[in-house]
Amino acid sequence: MMSATAFRQVTQDRSLFVPAGLFLVLLCAVAFRGQGLFTNNGLAGAILVATPLILTTLAITPIVMAGRGAVDLSVGPLMGFVNVTLITWLVGNGITHPVAVIAWAVGLGAAFQLVQALVIIYVRVAPIIVTLSGFLVLSGVNLMVMSRPGGVAPDWMLSWGAGTSVFSPVLLLLLGAFAIWGVLRGTMFYRNLRMTGADERMAYTSGVQVDVVRIIAHMVGGVFAGLAALSYTALISSGDPTQGSTYTLQAVTALVLGGASLSGGRGGALGSTLGAINMFLISYLLSTFNFGTVSGFVTQMAFGLILVGSLLVNVFVISRRTVA
Amino acid sequence: DGVDQLPASERTIYEVVDPQVPLGASAYKDFKPKKGPPWKIGYASSYAGNTWRAAALDAVMNDLLPRSKEAGLVSEVVVTQSDLKDAVQIQQMRQMVDDGVDAIIICCSNVTALNQTIEYAYKAGVPVFSFSGYVTSPYAINGAANHAQGGGEMATWLADKIGKKGNVLLVSGIPGFASSDSFDKAAKDALAKYPDITIVGEVAGKWTDQVAQVEVQKFLATNPTEVDGILTQGAQENGVLNAMLQSGRDMVPITLGGEASAACYWRQNPEWIDAGFHIWPPRREMQQMWEIMLRTLEGQGPKVQSFLRPVLPFTIDEVRAAIPEDCDVNSTDFVEPKADGWFPSAIADQYFERPADPWKPVAQ
Amino acid sequence: MGSEITVRMIDVAKAFGETKALKKCDFEARAGEVHAIVGENGSGKSTMAKIMSGVLHPDTGKVTILGEKVASPVDAKRVGLTTIFQEVLVADEASVFDNLYVGRDGVFRSQSTGDRRAEAAEILARLVGKSVDLDQLAGSLPLSIKQWIVIARAILRRPQVLILDESSAALDLDSTLRLHAEIDRLRAEGATILIVTHRIAELVRIADRATILRDGITVGTLGKDEITEENLLSMMTPADRRASDATEYASRKKALSAPLILTATGLAAHGSARLFDFDLPKGSIVGVAGLDGQGQDAFIRALAGIIQPFGGDVKVRSVDTDKMFALRSLDDAATLGVSYVSGDRKREGIFPQQSIFENLAIGVYRKTLGPLGVIRKPTLKPMFKREVDRLRIKIGSPSNRITSLSGGNQQKVLIGRAFVNDPQVILLNDPARGVDLGTKRDLYRELRLFAEKGGSVIYLSSEIEEFIGFADRVDVFFGGTLFRSLTGEEIAEAPILAAMFGKSRDASVDFDLERTA
Amino acid sequence: MISTVLNTEIGATRGASPLRKHKSISIGFCLLACLLILGALLVPGFVSPQNARSILLLAAFLGLASVGQTLCALVGALDLSIPYIIGGANILLPSLMVAGLPAPVAMIVVLLLGILVGASNGALSFRLQGQALIMSLGLGFAAVGAVQIYTSLGSQFGGTVFAPVPGWLRNLSAFNGKFFGLPFPPVIVIWAVIAAALGWIMHNTWFGRSLYAVGGSRTAAARLGISEFKIWTVIHSISGAMSALTGMLLLGFSGGGFVGVGDPYLFTTVAAVVIGGTSLLGGAGGYGATVLGVLVLTVLTSLLVGLGLSFPAQQAVVGLLIVPMVAIYARSPHIRNQI
Ligand SMILES: Nc1ncnc2c1ncn2[C@@H]1O[C@H](COP(=O)(O)OP(=O)(O)OP(=O)(O)O)[C@@H](O)[C@H]1O
Ligand SMILES: Nc1ncnc2c1ncn2[C@@H]1O[C@H](COP(=O)(O)OP(=O)(O)OP(=O)(O)O)[C@@H](O)[C@H]1O
Ligand SMILES: [Mg+2]
Ligand SMILES: [Mg+2]
């Protein structure tokens, strides 16, 4: 039930202005540079390639929203961890049943995030430190589980990575995540989460079970990380212990590009998704230019500049609101 | 399967081989390109940070492409670089396919991650050529030196050189990359045959001299153990050499892979060792891949999935011929086999169903 | 009046490390009564409220609310107890509606917004006196509306027990009356209302009973008829501290005719307020009073160079040249010798992770800088000692963290920070907030000494009593402008109060009168 | 790093006695001592001049790279541009020298560019507070991208630059470098000098004190006329300068320009700061603590290498160590005590 008020809230939410604006600009630019993206195959490929990033960004969204500066640095390696254990421990031991594989991915993600949440809540160490530690531990453990890329995804998953149809199972993963988020958004949990992130003391004294909210936020994030790992496994049809780490910075960047505040309270699935799609579009757009030898460097520079620019515009838009 | 169709002389090259390298018949035996020449080629490299990649790209842009243009075979080359991110490489390759390239050369990528994308390209009529490394997809054509055989040969050489006993440091490339892993595996197997040789350490040089130098330095500094020889992959031996020079230890034999810089040190210290190895000469390997690509596009029908070349030892005389006495120990170049010394057309012809000179295609 | 006991505390004690906030607290409140909790600053009132709300757990003793134990705010919600805490807790990034209903439901239950919106809109309109857009972000609203949101949040819960910890402190008269009406309504419905307040007039009007806390001990409970100022004061303050301070101040000769050291012309606290002028004679103590939100706070900040006043100029006489210079920024203030002390020490005063020494000395570093910004340390120790002695700051080791001090002593350190620069004007923005009487007296004495030596003081306070016998002049703000200047005989409770409510010279203010009017 | 959580830290160290104040330092020392003893017992040759020299050399690079991270952490920021500036400097210096600039001029140019990137970091991100780390990441990308484009003009590679490294630079930071004839590389001395100077500056200058003030309470600092903008800009500039310096010194160590040399410093600098005991939330800690953190981290790594642990295992162990370390001295107060 996306009521009129909810719609009003979305349109009122200035933090979406910049990502939405950037999205339109990028879309126009991509359309101008070549229509490859707007074909069935182009879109299918885009969904295939962008989904792991969208889902990792979604995975840190509830955690960041819960406040305390809880940027989850561990999310990339966590996705990698699910990926390599899936390939080595499950498929490697002949367990390929879809239910088992999906349950493993989702369960492992949620379990790891549960541990992190418990440490944050009961050991009371700042979340960024806990997740930095998670990042280092998992980055190491991933390479211990699987020393080099390899293995094969379960047979039923191989076709997922073909990316020849827009309506692929990967899209289903994405829609599944959106559905979970949509359901949560309709419950008090979502409001409690936002309020906890916006002012934890207020939420606590008003009778919000902030610890429960934080735990759930982490576990939902973990579930999304599991889904991200599935889509990533589908993308590369194998295991790779090294790539996960790079997703952390990308996801945090996408989150910020999506207008979320790393200090909590502000942000949401829509913004995060836009942010991640924008990241994909930037990279897509830059690939359409033939910069030859320096292509990687131009990409890197342009990407940095777009990041800086959109952050600055964001500040401008948001500070305008507080003045108004 | 594919290799059986090769003449016996070539089949020997495939005797020692990484078991993961696909040896079946090529999917492109009866391949006809979407259209005739000139073709548009995509080069999806995964990295651009080292001299070796630079030399390979240089071979494309400043040698192969101009020549192909002149012959009316290739109209342009689109280059992308993914900074070792598989997802990005996948997207770039798909983009190339969607934008209508006629063939894609990929470089030294993850052995499995790109398989779905390669299939996607195949279905769009775009063959994918994996240069200097293999991928396991049946729809790719791999072209490289036989890194397993090379690893074995270089390890055996080193073992002999240090008297079949002692401590060896293994300097690997990028763990997880096809050629790197093939090399390491075979090298370790070869060394395992010498009971008195121990591998005392394993570091990753990432095929980049600076990285190799730092890693070896760190190893030497924190491990007081004796090191009697260093087995390193190619394209990083100069870093290893410099690390040894800096450590203040006595120089030990190091395997050379063709970097002109390290070769220069050898030229100035001819007593040091007695052989180097062309293991992945960037320009020659690229030329090999390029010619395989042209032949495939010309419909010559490759017989095998993987075109492997034997690793070629070279002597100090070859080095003397290639670089001057006052050579540069910081050179970024490579000592490479002669133009037709790596994949001569007479041999190449044996790998194709309907061989012809790739540079002078019969009008279609 | 129902006699059912709803809140009961028996022999409760609570210590924070060394500090014994509550030593022996016995308390009972009944259904259908308004029960006041009074006591000096730091006597443990807020601690008591937090214990009842389940935020804090008592070290010893027993607390029952409506017959149940309350161990957390979630429990409190369940049994029907709601607390409005001293601090205004509002989430800026969330809508008004979300702020009103935060924590109302469990973690999951789905949201039902229909009825709630109507209910919220109605109550908020009744409290604020005009309708408020429920969908706008709370962050964009003024503080007074935020305070109402917090009150509305509590009232919407229809609590059986409602605790208000100094919630009326920030409300103007009109608003206070609306709040009282709301409290009356709840009382009539049989709820227990506990109010913590320092406003004696308010107490006298609304409370049915009052329990007095002194140093963490409940010293007694007064019935409606016994609640008088004398009774309250005599129970709140130990006899030895009760001696009038007025005698000490009486001797000071008035300094209002001295040359002006600071003038402000054409100021206004906000865009629409009437412009006013202000002047400060050398050696005088000028009090600044006003209900919350009347512009006195912005005024004193503008004098300190923290914010820009709407239009107008602030000029200060420079010691060296004896000319008037404009003061537009903090730097100007520093060079012209104008120091500012905030009462909000937690937010804009202390550096919590730093030592006591550092917290005091940082005020003077800039004056002692050698080349390259190097601090000349040797001069600092004597300076520190001088201030500590002068202000009688009770400290252990100077290298202890400032947070190891009691609130009053923290405040003294901040005042020391202002004094250490030898300023010619000191601006104090409600410095005695949360400061006990002994400390206050030390502070008054030092300020008087300072004034006698030719310094000038502007002293903003929310407690009228502070001005009496202390200030040479009291400037009262109302409606964003300087409403009246009181001197001499007029510096007394009734005239100041009248002026604060925007009344003419003689009208006395009485809550009951206002209500019937 | 995040301003809204600043207040959670306040209670953490309430009522601190001097002992408590130096808790993180004493724990750091204990840990270091334990590691050294363990190393001596378990790894032959661990306690040797060579090993000490190599630990100090590696620590010096990490220590120099962590200067900026420490200062940033003190105001609650994180600087993620450090690895990129290091990498950029590492390839820019040789390519400027190849282009004909005399070494000292080239070094100054690189240093100034590092400062420029840092200053823009600070100036642009000071309003962002919580988002500052992404701003620094973006600028880092932009800077290293630009440098790589510059270095690849006319050559084939941007990631690596080959040029003869001058002997004196090599001597500065190579294992076999000599400091006035003494058998250790001068970079260790450079680090020691910078550490001592920084420690002194932090305690004895207006800049140092205002830095702590801004980190402790932005508003209170503003009331004292301390410009938060200036502080952010200056510390980020210092961070840029130190990263550039580290990048240039690493050139002498690795023998050639390679843009990836900075990569390991992305999270290790943060880890060193955290292990040392500087709060990432601002206001408490200092470079002395970071020095300790750097030494603990380097000795630990060396010990783990000596024990034959692979790189991944080392990383996991370091990660596992962080939470207990921080839990000993920097737990946040329970929310009950924050109302
Ligand atoms: N969390 C805490 N930790 C340590 N001491 C505390 C804490 N909370 C309160 N105190 C101390 O307990 C005592 C009682 O404080 P409390 O806030 O209850 O006083 P109060 O009567 O509400 O004062 P005020 O009128 O200023 O609100 C004070 O000395 C205070 O310093
Ligand atoms: N967790 C804590 N540990 C130790 N001391 C504390 C703690 N919380 C508060 N205090 C001390 O208690 C005193 C006042 O605390 P409290 O939180 O009650 O103040 P407050 O009521 O909000 O402010 P005010 O000074 O206006 O009354 C201060 O001295 C403060 O340092
Ligand atoms: Mg109090
Ligand atoms: Mg109180």
UniProtKB/TrEMBL annotation, chain A:
Heme is among the record's keywords:
no
Question: Any idea which GO molecular function terms this record carries?
Answer: transmembrane transporter activity
Regarding the membrane, this protein is recorded as: Multi-pass membrane protein
InterPro entries, per database record = ABC_transp_permease
Instruction: From the record, give the transmembrane residue ranges.
Output: 43-66, 128-146, 166-184, 212-235, 247-265, 272-291, 297-318
Q: Keywords on this record?
A: Cell membrane, Membrane, Transmembrane, Transmembrane helix
Where does this chain mainly localize? membrane
Q: Which cell locations does it reside in?
A: Cell membrane
Q: What is this protein called?
A: Sugar ABC transporter permease
What is the native source organism of this protein?
Rhizobium leguminosarum bv. trifolii
Kindly list the organism's lineage: Bacteria, Pseudomonadati, Pseudomonadota, Alphaproteobacteria, Hyphomicrobiales
TrEMBL record, chain C:
Q: What is this protein called?
A: Sugar ABC transporter ATP-binding protein
* Gene3D superfamilies the record matches: P-loop containing nucleotide triphosphate hydrolases
Q: Which residue range or ranges hold the ABC transporter domain? A: 7-240, 256-504
Keyword Transport (UniProt): yes
GO MF annotations in UniProt: ATP binding; ATP hydrolysis activity
The alphabetical list of record keywords is: ATP-binding, Membrane, Nucleotide-binding, Repeat, Sugar transport, Transport
The UniProt entry, under InterPro entries, shows:
AAA+_ATPase, ABC_carbohydrate_import_ATPase, ABC_transporter-like_ATP-bd, ABC_transporter-like_CS, P-loop_NTPase
Asked if the Swiss-Prot or TrEMBL record annotates the protein with the keyword Transport, the reply is yes
Q: Where does this protein come from, organism-wise? A: Rhizobium leguminosarum bv. trifolii
Q: Which SUPFAM superfamilies match?
A: P-loop containing nucleoside triphosphate hydrolases (SSF52540)
The entry assigns this protein to a family as follows: Belongs to the ABC transporter superfamily.
- Pfam families, alphabetized: ABC_tran
TrEMBL record, chain D:
**Would you indicate the residue range of the signal peptide?**
none
Q: Name one GO molecular function term.
A: transmembrane transporter activity
Which one Pfam family would you cite for this protein?
Answer: BPD_transp_2
Q: Which domain of life is it from?
A: Bacteria
Species of origin reads Rhizobium leguminosarum bv. trifolii
Give the residue spans that cross the bilayer: 25-43, 55-78, 98-120, 132-151, 179-201, 231-253, 265-282, 289-307, 313-330
Q: How does it sit in the membrane?
A: Multi-pass membrane protein
Kindly state the subunit structure of this protein: The complex is composed of two ATP-binding proteins (LsrA), two transmembrane proteins (LsrC and LsrD) and a solute-binding protein (LsrB).
Where located?
A: Cell membrane
Protein name, UniProt field: Autoinducer 2 import system permease protein LsrC
Give the function comment from the record.
Answer: Part of the ABC transporter complex LsrABCD involved in autoinducer 2 (AI-2) import. Probably responsible for the translocation of the substrate across the membrane.
Supply the InterPro entries for this chain.
ABC_transp_permease
Traced from the root, the source organism's taxonomic lineage reads:
Bacteria, Pseudomonadati, Pseudomonadota, Alphaproteobacteria, Hyphomicrobiales
CC annotations in GO: plasma membrane
**UniProt entry keywords in alphabetical sequence:** Cell inner membrane, Cell membrane, Membrane, Transmembrane, Transmembrane helix, Transport
